[in-house]
Amino acid sequence: MTKLIRSWVESANAPDTDFPLNNLPYGVFSAGGSDPRCGVAIGDRILDAARMEADGLLECGGALQTGGWNAFMARGKPAWAKLRDALTKMLTEGSDRQDALRGYLVYQAEATLHMPFSVTEYTDFYAGRHHAFNVGTMFRGPDNALPPNWLHIPIGYNGRASSVVVSGTPVIRPNGQLKGPDDAMPRFGPSQRFDIELEIGAIVGQPSDGPIAVAEAFDNIFGYVLLNDWSARDIQAWEYQPLGPFQSKATATTISPWIVTAAALEPFRTSTPEREKPLLPYLAEPGPMLYDIALEVGLTPEGGVETVVSRTNYREMYYSAAQQLAHHSSSGCPMRVGDLLGSGTISGPTKDSRGSLLELSWGGKEPLTLEGGEIRGFVEDHDMLALRGAAMGDGYRVGFGSCTGEVLPARAVKG
Amino acid sequence: MTKLIRSWVESANAPDTDFPLNNLPYGVFSAGGSDPRCGVAIGDRILDAARMEADGLLECGGALQTGGWNAFMARGKPAWAKLRDALTKMLTEGSDRQDALRGYLVYQAEATLHMPFSVTEYTDFYAGRHHAFNVGTMFRGPDNALPPNWLHIPIGYNGRASSVVVSGTPVIRPNGQLKGPDDAMPRFGPSQRFDIELEIGAIVGQPSDGPIAVAEAFDNIFGYVLLNDWSARDIQAWEYQPLGPFQSKATATTISPWIVTAAALEPFRTSTPEREKPLLPYLAEPGPMLYDIALEVGLTPEGGVETVVSRTNYREMYYSAAQQLAHHSSSGCPMRVGDLLGSGTISGPTKDSRGSLLELSWGGKEPLTLEGGEIRGFVEDHDMLALRGAAMGDGYRVGFGSCTGEVLPARAVKG
Fold first, then answer.
1. Does residue A1 carry a pLDDT above 70?
2. What total of structural domains would you count in chain A?
3. Are residues B150 and B126 part of one domain?
4. 8 Å CB contact of B158 and A159
5. What is the pLDDT of residue B415?
6. Is B327 a catalytic site residue?
7. Are residues B84 and B126 in the same domain?
8. In sequence order, what are the beta bridge partners of B92?
9. What is the pLDDT of residues B231-246, one digit of tens each?
10. pLDDT per residue over B207-230, tens digit each?
């Protein structure tokens, strides 16, 4: 296991920071009335990478002047490595650039974080074995829980890029068509079973124009974010057959503000679990392409304290993002810079490692009791949900920051 | 019914042209080595609207200098009306601008057509009653043909914007996972049941950031294109449960090169059919929001002659694009300029009015015999498919041009 790389930014050496020098995640921030601009998290600060480029301290062909990381991603892997290398050298303890760089550091506490990149298209997968079994059991019964194709295909559906928002954005409870099994007709109103999904999103950093192999897919992924795929389970249950989830998943998908690069996660690679059925060759992984990332979900009721309702790990996934991207391209589907691939809900084998309230409360039948005594089947208005995650190194952690959203009451229904 | 508006461009007065002065559809063309640029079809010519704006003959705030119509759409309905009005005046028989404009006319035969706009996101609906019943019967049997939600929800799924191509782009037969009902394991190879879907695509021309009513949705639609949603039925059958179509629909979706505006189609508005079950208020149409557009599909085998395999009409749809857009926004899903909404396959009640080969050949069991004697269950390599459509006026037609694609053999599968 690699060690902490010490930085002259002292806060980056603290064992509990998400942003040691080993991480260097990319985000977009504004501070002091500035326009949103590219920055790099280091300890409790943000390095103003946009202004550094403008002042000639970094060379990225102007890509950092665009208010997002898409243009930089499009420059390709050698450019990715070059910037990371330059930043690492400049920020390492003992660097002679310390005085030159000090003026480019902004306190995170004084900055507002924005979407780190423009989401081109968004695809959500369903690649957690435990999640698929749990949900399948509730929707279709235990005998039909795992669909026949599940062990052969990293199943996914196209989501809605326009609804992806950055951490901190309030989420308005959706209205939609609701119909209980005994209702003669559907009605239109606020979702009563509004839920979260704990996921990790992979960001495509290189375009492809035809089928790509798993190894190439792995190389094309620029980095990862935490992702909460808000889901209205009652809308979903009525709408999802035969064409899949649509408005139940279109209200909002929240991502963490920092892109943790594949390079930073490199020491934490791990293998997907043993195959229960052999995969077709186009999905075979040539090496470990999943990551060991500890994850948790916190729920804070209005005016209350947080309860951690789930602890799990990204290594639970049955399919890696590289396998998902290879499958995504298998029909010839063009992939573009900024495409976001949700992993699917990350549930572990135990009850307290489930990644959605649907599973944690077993469809509301076994509500959770929170620290303050309140109970929860699904998300209530003004609940604050927070996802957190980090790969754990020896004396340091490569973290994502937090991915939060408060749920606001539904809009009034007219007519 | 409105009459032909005569133009000094003589070819625009021919009864069989798709592009009389009543139409004025918007596209993107290049000619003589130029960059792709905004143009307007009139008879057998294209008016170089981009150069007219650059020369001060049109005022669109520079929107026509962007190589696509998105920026113009974003300017809003008054700007849409103003340009249409200006073009109509300039091109009307007897206009004093005739000499000034002659130099801006390019023969369509000498131009290459490009994507008329950048597709922001693509959604495909399933709103044809006959199509849903036919396909449901084949996939799930006649008793479960129409899903329980179908008469209440304009069902749709998110498609893949990156795969939308302009008419004339060759389409490579996809590879994918295939599994017959009696196969123990899936295999990976070329789709054997590659199909077309005859649809009309609605283009969102104004953004919305929350639920919108059907009337507002109707106003937000800028125009329409023909749309062929290529579909690999065998890949679809194996992958589609429980999350809907994914790689079966991601190879290509072909659109016609001309955006026929809602303004041009205004005289051809018609109502959706009588409701079999009452709709929830958020989906109620305040007036006729569908259009009477005659449609046909031609199939030409390699080196052969064309057979028209289907004739149908857009008025067959159960839900209008306005209803689909209102439903799309009902969860709060933000809609953006350039979003493309496929109508769903447009099948009529009779066998020869079905909009897909799946239905026309009843899953391949009743193959079609083409003019030259060849038979077809699904699309064969080097078949050329052409969609055509026009609203029929009194002595003129408001047409879409054709929407064509030749199917090329699948890529070799490695490994």
1. no
2. 2
3. yes
4. yes
5. 58
6. no
7. no
8. B7
9. 999 999 999 989 999 9
10. 999 999 999 999 999 999 999 999
For B29-33, what is the mean pLDDT?
95
What is the span of the domain harbouring residue B83? 10-114
What CATH number should be reported for the domain holding residue A370?
Answer: 3.90.850.10
Query: Which residue, B83, B114, B145, sits at the end of a domain?
Result: B114
Contacts of A136 (CB under 8 A, 6+ apart): A144, A145, A146, A147, B242
Query: Do residues B101 and B132 share a domain?
Result: no
Work out the percent of chain B whose per-residue pLDDT is above 90: 97
Active-site residue identified among B130, B131, B327, B328: B131
User: Residues A391, A294: contact at Cβ < 8 Å?
Assistant: yes
Query: Does residue A85 lie in a domain region?
Result: yes
> Whole-model pTM?
0.98
The average pLDDT across A104-116 equals 98
Interface check B84 vs A, CB under 8 A = no
CA A5-A7-A10 angle, to 5 degrees, is: 125
* Shared-domain flag, residues B389 and B350: yes
Section A400-415 average pLDDT = 93
Residues of A in Cβ contact (< 8 Å) with B149: 177, 179, 186, 238-239, 241
pLDDT digits (tens, 9 = 90+) for A271-290: 999 999 999 999 999 999 99
pLDDT category of residue B144 using cuts at 50, 70 and 90: confident
ipTM for the complex?
A: 0.97
- Tell me whether A185 touches chain B (CB under 8 Å): yes
**pLDDT, tens only, A11-28:** 999 999 999 999 999 999
Locate the chain A residue with the closest alpha carbon to B240: A243
* Mode of pairing for the β-strands spanning A294-300 and A384-392: antiparallel
